[in-house]
């Protein structure tokens, strides 16, 4: 078991309010990811859940028991850090065993847990090595293994893949997904990487300036963002925003259209623009059109395309994918 409930959590450092009233329920077995711009309070919130930081107000419950004043070591959580935080003088086996040893578990039980975790993470060949004799990816697997060994109610991950190169990041991401599936464990995870959030999360929490903007499954956030902030934050390249008046659409203040929902047509487009830049990604082409007062429009076209710089093109929006926002930036939901 490992459900988590945050009620009206606030945090101030001196005069600065960093977390401004966060309510969140995480179900047992769920993988929830915090995303948001730098400084929005993701790590602070995670550290408050871990007990490494005291909240200024509000309460935290794990499995319905209030742990707001429980020390970190007694909350039943394990945290995996971006920097691995392994003991350099200890072997992999000893790094993984340490928590249970300190908690005075019997040696046979510790050996069994280390065996289980090292098999799960393919760490068996490295058990007698020290961290300096491992690659970055292997070190991060040891850090994850150390958490698995402790059978926590709740796993907390603070940007665990940020120090890995692109290929290793994908591998380790798949490993965390598998771990989550096989252990059925509750996980709360902080990242600034959209792909990680979209591919791993059961639900994503979008934070901005210490408040929650929206909570939803990755596809809910992509298909039904609550406001301009979430619409612009989820999706890459970013959603295009255009002043609705410039398009003759009086039913909204701002129109939003994702680059992947724009096509180039010979006539009768929604907007005209001059080609200002082209990015060839192989599988896709990102085309940037200078649309004058409407700004720069990005279209993501499937496959390879050639266009002449400065030539004028007609861009057409997939009407079923057009988002509308009011003058407060709130999404105007489609009427079915
Ligand atoms: N110990 C501290 N004392 C004062 N201010 C702090 C402290 N820790 C964090 N802050 C401030 O709180 C805000 C939130 O920081 P936090 O590290 O939670 O952001 P984040 O969303 O995790 O950012 P990033 O993505 O850059 O890691 C920032 O403005 C930061 O400067």
UniProtKB/TrEMBL annotation:
Query: Which segments constitute the ABC transporter domain?
Result: 4-234
Broad class of the protein's primary localization: membrane
Q: How does it sit in the membrane?
A: Peripheral membrane protein
A GO CC term? ATP-binding cassette (ABC) transporter complex, substrate-binding subunit-containing
Tell me the keywords, alphabetical order.
Answer: ATP-binding, Nucleotide-binding, Transport
**Family (UniProt):** Belongs to the ABC transporter superfamily.
Stored PANTHER family: MALTODEXTRIN IMPORT ATP-BINDING PROTEIN MSMX, MALTOSE_MALTODEXTRIN IMPORT ATP-BINDING PROTEIN MALK
Q: What is this protein called?
A: Carbohydrate ABC transporter ATP-binding protein, CUT1 family
Organism annotation: Nitratireductor aquibiodomus
